[in-house]
């Protein structure tokens, strides 16, 4: 591969090690390297997920972020911490502000609460080599927040991310670098399922084609990959060669919205009679976000997951003639889908709704007796109250019934209590 036509940058991908657990350790004055601490979503539920484990807990007991509360060891030194998402988001924001001491905000791309990219082109005269800059970034995070980090260095965001995931986490200094010329040595031997962007379903498809490593993918026919998987197939091919043309400088926060949806995994089995209030709350959240962005949608999706003893559930959608962002209209369509495809006497454990096929919100020709204008004005008034006084400042009466979820969700950030 001749890499001459492709852009070369100095990109860092930074991941905060055991971020939630490290924050909880620092709040308690503990060393994350020695303290046995687990952050649990809801300690009142034995099946709750372990959101993070301190490095010491991972080493000693093999606890991972997919473990359950009941799987934690019976260790006298074990500390259980409830998740405090508001606190984690606040510290994540402070870390981002710290990065602005090195680069302008346009050179920062936030990937998640504990991971981000920095584009450090041209900083060598100020801070030294790229690796020296990575070490300075690590040291600044450690000194200010007591949190360790690992850093991948690459010519683009893909290379920086993958070498961070695969190699930096195992490196003694937590830093690893992969340039175009290193792809065949560092990345091609790696199984495809370990590469960022390739999930279990794609792994299954690729394995059936005889593609097991990234090198296999790089040597495969690009036209056939594109024919089989469309644009995604072509992107997989270029990524296998380490090529990523996504921007490394600019406004990364504004992305085209494809749909507005909300879903929930229920804490108990819901009956047919209880799910209505839950669906109404979900439609309210989805439509409120659409109204905020001035969007309406023509296609409404409903997904229902049954309890394990009743099978998987169903996922269906339908399109309507006039685009909408009205909660009640979306809810009525969801009810029709539910009544049509629900299997009687099945208990419900998951529900989600989505509004897609979006258009800009514009005025519509209404009849003299149409109430949509008043409904829209009322919806925007309620949105304004919630924006000013909080998401639970004004709710529908159904939200306070046993099936409603809005009251409880209003107490959470990112699905967890603050």
UniProtKB/TrEMBL annotation:
The protein's name: UV-damage repair protein uvrX
InterPro entries in the record: DNA/RNA_pol_sf, DNA_pol_Y-fam_lit_finger_sf, DNA_pol_Y-fam_little_finger, DNA_polymerase-Y, IMS_HHH_1, Rev_trsase/Diguanyl_cyclase, UmuC
Gene3D superfamilies membership: 3.30.70.270, 3.40.1170.60, 5' to 3' exonuclease, C-terminal subdomain, DNA polymerase, Y-family, little finger domain
Protein family: Belongs to the DNA polymerase type-Y family.
UmuC domain span: 11-199
Pfam family name, one: IMS
